[in-house]
Amino acid sequence: MATRAATFTARIRNLHDYQLRLLHNIMPVPSGVDIANTLKYFSQTLLTVLKDVPSSPMEMLKSQEKDSVRLGLYPILDYKGLYSAIVQLTDVVPLIQCGLNVFGQAMLQCLGCLLPFLDHDMIDTLPYMTASMVAVLPSELHQEIINSLCFYILPFTITRRNADDDDEQENYASRSVAAIIMMVFQYSEDPAHHCQLLECLMTNKKNVVKDLLCVIAYGTSGARASAAKLLFYYWPTFNPNLFDRRVVLQKFSNLVPFVCQHDMCPNAGNAEAAKVCYDHCISITFASDSPPPLYLCIECANEIHREHPNQMFFDILHPMQQVSMTCENKNCRASDKYAVSICFSTECASYNGNHPIRYCQQCHNIRHNNRRGGDHIVHTSLPQLWDMDAEVQTYMVESIVSLLKEAKHLNSDISKGSADIHSKASLLNVLTTEDPIPLEERQLLGRYGVWLLVGLCTPHEDTPAEILGRLLSMLFHWFDITSYTFDDQESTLERLKTEFVCGWLSDVCSSHFKVFVSCLLPHPPDYARVGGHWDTLISRTSHLKDGLNRLFSLVPYEIITSEIWDYVMPHWMEAMVNDVPEKEQHELKNLLRIICSCNILTSYTFAFALKS
């Protein structure tokens, strides 16, 4: 035992030595194969130790309260030192010159084997640490990273109960889910990986929509785009008449099935895993190089069950084959069959071929009530903004704002002040030269924000002016930006404006006139200073010019009524007189001369313009 502990500690020192040599380029620089061989030693040692444990550490992982008992089952080895050494190695992965694939596979295997030996602090940080490897390992290993997260790490970390047994209080690993989503969505370009990760999270965690909205609100553009698409793809619709179903139900790349891990599987590499056994001894016996639990195809599960009839084998959920807009209960008798929830419990999924199942309101109430289904993980359609708790409400508002901000001006239409800012930033290398999202897609990405706004944000009497004003101001900016679109996008966006947005704006104007017009003033309240010229450092003249453009972009849609015009124009005239230097006033004169041209204004607008 003392020899094994000494060898274990010596190998950890080897990992630290590898890290220092890579960091400081000390010869000989270790290759990925050298480090992988050391990591494989740890994996085999950990599996050997685990096999001798009589109890069930995989079951104990589910509760933080049992951590002391679980850790007491193992011999004294420096498990914490091993984890710290692996974390330090992730910082030097870009410096590994050869053998990177072998290194990455060995590291993922070692992390899975190490999980049962970690205390709660390290278990909490393991999911994000594993997800962060997608940023440094080659794309060929991204599928293995996702599999490691979805089958060996997330089901045993984000589901852990706290020591005080408070199911409502999330642990640190669960609270890091938004960061995990953001990391994978940003660095993995395969939509199948995004779907697999999200389905795993929806299987193991309630209220995943909060994390997804957090990514949309504060994530990078690439992560935001994928998160928005998957939000509408997976979550039951909150208004079936609002969406273009061909957009919402677009086909994502087929998921790569997770195959049977049995060493002697007769269909190795082809048989999809359908059962899981959590017994660590069975797992190590029949999959000698894989961490527990053991995932098996039906044939292998039946074979092992004949040899070990006392062992339990559980069904695992298969990926969603398609997303249905209607109830998938074969015995549904409801008149309104639109799906309002999706259940990821194995009990309900068993009625749908072990795939997650969607229910209408009537079937949902039958399956999930006080008598049954209370422990099921169910995701329901989004409620109205005002019915959400404060945290989710904030994420939703910022999600809408961020999605509407994705629309960008065409280069030829950027104002001179903004163009100067972008030119100087480019010279200083402040702006990235390569946009991960094509401009055409950016122009259309705002649709998701519009759908959320129109479908979930109908204001009532007590709606806070700060929230409504921020949303209105951002929507006005989106109108201005999308006035200049590509030909194939124009019909899509114009139809969205005329069919849904204009009616919503008219209702808001009628019920919240003061908030509405405050967003159209040259000096709006702080909460309305969002988007466009409010996000850049430009001159006061450029602010007024961009503000006028935003105002006049609403004119063709008859949103600016004579009442609104009479209210806001005196403020604009006063601002042009007081805020604009005399040498720059000609810029606004030219703009007003063009705006007042009969060729641009409709007869309706021109009539009340003359009256004003």
Short account of what is shown:
The chain is mostly helical.
Tell me about this structure:
It is a single chain. The protein is mainly alpha-helical. The protein folds into three domains: 174 residues, no CATH class; 42 residues; 227 residues, no CATH class. The protein has 28 helices and six strands. The strands form two sheets. It has a three-stranded antiparallel sheet with strand order 2-1-3. It has a three-stranded antiparallel sheet with strand order 5-4-6. Helix 25 runs parallel beside helix 27. About 4% of the residues have low confidence.
Instruction: Look at the helices and sheets and give the structural class.
Output: mainly alpha
Shape: globular
Beta content comes to: under 5%
Total strands: 6
Largest sheet: 3 strands, antiparallel
The oligomerization state is single chain
- Work out the count of structural domains: 3
Please describe the topology of this protein.
Layout: H1 2-24, H2 32-51, H3 57-60, H4 67-71, H5 79-90, H6 100-114, H7 120-131, H8 142-157, H9 172-175, H10 177-187, H11 191-204, H12 208-218, H13 221-234, H14 245-248, E1 275-277, H15 280-286, E2 294-296, H16 298-307, E3 314-315, E4 339-343, H17 346-349, E5 357-360, H18 361-367, E6 378-380, H19 390-405, H20 416-427, H21 439-456, H22 465-481, H23 487-511, H24 513-518, H25 540-552, H26 562-579, H27 585-595, H28 603-611
Antiparallel strand pairs: 1-2, 1-3, 4-5, 4-6
Helix pairs in contact: 1-2, 1-5, 2-6, 2-15, 6-8, 7-8, 8-11, 10-11, 10-12, 10-13, 12-13, 12-19, 19-21, 19-22, 21-23, 22-25, 25-26, 25-27
Organism: Cryptotermes secundus
Protein name: Protein unc-79-like protein
InterPro entries: UNC79
